[in-house]
Amino acid sequence: MARKVDEFPVGGRSNYPWGEWMDGGVWELTVGEDVKTNPRNFRVSANAQAKARGGKVRTKILKDEQGTERLYIQFFRP
Description:
Blueprint: H1 18-21, E1 26-30, H2 39-52, E2 56-63, E3 69-76
Antiparallel strand pairs: 1-3, 2-3
């Protein structure tokens, strides 16, 4: 049955290890393996995660020789 609560829940489980990926290093993610959604949608999530951490994220999508999409991300603070 529905009930009213005092506060909106905070936290929760994420599908991705954002804390690790937002360490400032350059990360190569494989679409379909590391990234389970459309890479363009993932970029939106990455931008939101970076903003929540007080920074921004650089992203680039490339295809390798076999046609597999790779997504590169790097968190930074301007």
